[in-house]
Amino acid sequence: MKTISGIFLTCALLAFGTPTHLLAQAAKPAAADNATGDAAWKELEKALRPPVPPEEWREKRPTQEEIEKFKEKQRDLSSAAADKAKDFYTRFPAHAKAPEARAKEHEMLGYAVQLGATNQTTRLAEIEKERLKDPSLSEDDRFELRAQAVQREAVKKRPEGMEAMMAEFEKGVRDLQKEFPKREEVYQMLMMVLQNSSGEKSRALAEELVKGSAPDEVKEAAKAILKKLEMVGKPLNIKFTAVDGREIDISKMAGKVLLIDFWATWCGPCIAELPNVKAAYDRLHPKGFEIIGISFDKEKDDLVNFVAAEKMTWPQYFDGLGWKNKLGTEYGINSIPAMWLVDKKGILRDPNGRDDLEKKVEKLLAE
Question: Among 28-37, 57-66, 144-153, 272-281, where is mean pLDDT lowest?
Fold first, then answer.
């Protein structure tokens, strides 16, 4: 769209019969600007491309250190891409791609902050604050902006532990619930809180979701958690032949503190928890701590090879049914990792053993 001054300039030139070669000369700066802007956009597009994981990762599973270094690279590249996007729309505010560049700046800053770029949080918050002032912003976009902010505030509490992080997260979700009472995502976020809660809080939240206006899938998941909570304080009856041939019977493991680990080799969060699980096992196994893995894998070789490579010496249940895993179905497992702690008497004591695993095991060992 032409500005008012631009329209008057064009009309004046035509009215006085300006020679065509002068008109062509007058148009050159704009054409040059467009060409420069197009070239800058192509450079920005290159910066927006995510880094490709090393080729050797296809053949060999990366170490945790290698993964962390790659995440640092992603973080730095995301920050750099956000800077390039800002530079683009600042230099070429009238370019057709300027609005998209603004959106990309926000997107890249979000990635950078998720990957640990704490120096970008203030900048990201300011951009979101401005966007939220836009009356033409759709409800979907408005909710997405608010939800991202809630998640970031919760992550800031991570150094204080899972309980503090979830408390902050729930606080933000409750605010979202007031602003967007009909959004299904709010109930899914409350389900995340529920999955990381325990005791009476867990029961109260599960009952709230079951009785409220949550989507059916959330209600079913909450019912499954209520079922698990009903098992707390009761003995578990798990008996099977492990993938390596060992006969496992919890009723014959009195005197041991057990971790029942529902997991799979294809589950990213499960793999992320593995260093903590192995550390607890290495330190506390001599004192009577045992682990029983319940695998949701479909391919036996995937499980056997992974367990061997990671030196996971504890027994693994496998039936090749994936999410229809017999024990997972019996015990209402609808998300993994799920870690249950069983005391020396074979009683299920904690259906949420992930947080502070070592401390919880030590406490049970001391009983």
Answer: 28-37
Tell me how far apart the alpha carbons of residues 77 and 136 are, in angstroms, rounded to a whole number.
31
Question: For 82-91, how does the pLDDT look when each residue is reduced to its tens digit (9 = 90+)?
Answer: 999 999 999 9
**Tokens standing for residue 9:** 């300039």
Q: Which two tokens stand for residue 120?
A: 């970008």
Distance CA 267, CA 231 (A): 25
Q: Which residue's structure tokens are 């990309």? A: 104
Q: How far apart are CA 317 and CA 211, in angstroms?
A: 35
CA angle 211, 216, 217 (to 5 degrees): 120
Nearest 5°: the CA angle 186, 190, 196 is 150
For residue 32, the model assigns a pLDDT of 54
Q: CA 287 → CA 280, 284, 292, 345, distances in Å?
A: 11, 5, 16, 16
Per-residue tokens: 114: 């998720």
Is the pLDDT at 13 greater than 90, yes or no? no
SS3 46: helix
Q: CA–CA separation, 365 vs 341, rounded Å?
A: 11
pTM given for the model: 0.62
- CATH C-level class of 239-365: alpha beta
Each domain of the chain, given as residue ranges in start order, spans 4-51+64-137, 152-231, 239-365
DSSP 56: G
pLDDT, one tens digit per residue, over 139-194 is 999 999 999 899 888 988 888 888 899 999 999 999 999 999 999 999 999 999 98
Confidence of residue 14 (pLDDT cuts 50, 70, 90): very low
